[in-house]
Amino acid sequence: MCKVTVPYSTIAADELHESDYVPLVNLIGIYFQIRDDLMNLQSTEYTKNKGFAEDLTEGKFSFPVVHGIHADTTNRQVLNVLQKRPATPTLKVHTINYLRDQTKSFDYTHSVLDSLEAQTRQEIKRLGGNAALEKIMDLLHVETPELM
């Protein structure tokens, strides 16, 4: 396994040190992928750009979908929808409602995103802070809906 380090070559030689950015890059990558999975199933903006719940049409085992499958292993509903790869909204809407209301997969996904965002921001801080990365995290932030 390759360890990625970035030397600060612009610093005086006596202050030269290396920082390990792998944990930060891993956190950002995981956060972004889970966020993308959630947005694909919930965001009207994603629907405009990529189509409605395209991950279901493509049969993808996204983060909320995997949670929904594991939340009730006796119910094969989500697996059946993934196998059918529906192009029309009817089955997709039903599956999204199931993931939201029955398995609470979107709530779980939001909680994981909140935790990953906090870890990412802490890692940015540990590495000395970075206004540009903090701004990116602000832009990627997903509001957790109020629980009823």
What's the layout of helices and strands?
Elements: E1 5-7, E2 18-20, H1 22-42, H2 44-50, H3 54-57, H4 63-71, H5 77-84, H6 89-102, H7 105-126, H8 131-140
Antiparallel strand pairs: 1-2
Helix pairs in contact: 1-2, 1-7, 4-7
Family: Belongs to the FPP/GGPP synthase family.
GO molecular function: metal ion binding; prenyltransferase activity
Cofactor: Mg(2+)
Strand residue percentage? under 5%
For the largest beta-sheet, the strand count, sense and barrel status come to: 2 strands, antiparallel
Predict the CATH topology: Farnesyl Diphosphate Synthase
CATH architecture group name: Orthogonal Bundle
Number of domains: 1
Protein name: (2E,6E)-farnesyl diphosphate synthase
InterPro entries: Isoprenoid_synthase_dom_sf, Polyprenyl_synt, Polyprenyl_synt_CS
Keywords: Magnesium, Metal-binding
Family: Belongs to the FPP/GGPP synthase family.
